[in-house]
Amino acid sequence: MPLPNAFRRDGEPMPGHYPVELLVCPRCHLGQLSAIVDPNVMYTNYPYVTSPSDTMKEHFKRLWDTLNAERKINAVVEIGSNDGLLLEHFRNFGAQQVLGIDPAENLVDVCCIKRGIPAICSLFNREAAEETLDTMPAPIDLILARHVFCHIDNWRQFIDDVTVICSKNTVVCLEVPYAHDTVENCEWDTVYAEHLNYLTLQAMEHLLSDSALHLHHVVRFPIHGGAIALLLRRNDAVEPPSASVDEFLASERCSLEDWQRFGQKANEQIGALKALVKKLRSEGKRVVGYGASAKSTVWINAMGLRRSDIECVYDGTPQKQYCTIPGTDIPVRHEGAFYADAADYAVVWAWNFLSEVITKNKKWTEGGGKFIVPVPEVRILE
Ligand code: TYD
Question: 51 CA distance to ligand 1 centroid (A)?
Answer without folding.
Answer: 6
